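Hey, I was hoping to borrow your eyes for a little while. A protein chain has come my way and I'm curious about its shape. Take your time with it, there's no hurry, and the full record follows here:
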Amino acid sequence: MHNEQRLYFLDWLRILAFILLLLYHTGMYYVTWDWHVKSPHAGTAIEPLMLLSSPWRMSLLFLVSGAAAGFLLRKMAAAAFVRERSARLLVPLLFGMLVIVPPQPYFEVVEKVGYAGSYADFMGLYLRAYGGFCKDGDCLLLPTWNHLWYLPYVWAYALVLAALAGTLGPAWLGRAGARLATLLAGWRALVLPAALLALVRIALKPHFEETHALVDDWFNHATYLPLFLAGSVLGGQAAFWRELERLRWPALGIALASWAALVAYHWQPEALQVWPVTARIGWATCQWCAIVAACGFARRHLSGDGPARQYLTQAVFPVYILHQTLIVCFSRLLRGSALPPATEGLVLLVLTVTASFGIFEIARRMPLLRPLFGLKDVNRIAVATATRQVG
């Protein structure tokens, strides 16, 4: 029987989405797509596999993050919700930008523009917002949040959600969720969101670059904000999640077929020029149907609780904060090795996972470090646990 009070499968989806992000960023070192540093072995071999998750990975995270935010907002006033979200998201963001992220742009400018200064010299430039690291007219903006861009976006969307709840009343989440769940029944659960995502992609993608800079990222906002808000109102709608579980197999089939078409398009540049709208519809179809399949299979098979979920739910956010910098740093250590690319990639992944969880284990035992990695205060956890036991 599914637990409708605590949707454990959403926790598992968040965990698996962040694990997939770790794998994806490891892969970014080995593909031809632009990234901070590049392997001497970079090529196109694994790009079709990378494309398998590109359309939907972050979209799923925003949907699940919206559901978590909606559940939280149902338990507290809007002002308290904003304070909690600010502490959990902005403190790790600032710490990340000052301490965790800087090695990434440092090694990027060493590799791309031949910077010969020390890391200490670079940090002086980084903190002064130096803008002279340029190549082919493209200048690196400093300081930067790099892979942590997800944090200010979720925070900004949480502010929008709090403003809506404050304006429309606390019952708005339930009313909006019930209406949306009714609308997204049957075939409409597959077609309507995919059509909306396709419309956004067709209308905005050609005109707005994906910047991850928050203030000018209109295509991403038009994609991720609706998914976040949809998750926030649909989180408590059991009928909606049951519908996704029922549709999981056809959604998976459509997602895989769309992915195959995208791979064919990607390796036929002339097709992209002749059928750009078709390619964007295929991307959006893969994007939403993969989300439906992931949610449906997770609800079916991952609705139980246990020590693994409890541990990983706590660990996954610090691991997310750490992982990309560790990938970049370990890739530099392995750069002169004679390892075959596949073996090197596996070693890079193992080193990154081991170091990420090792640092998490240290941080969670130190009260001063916990908030810097987005971990709840130990005293608050103890009070909440005691309250549940008394109740």
Remarks:
- The first helix runs from residue 8 to 28.
- The chain is about 70% helix and 0% strand.
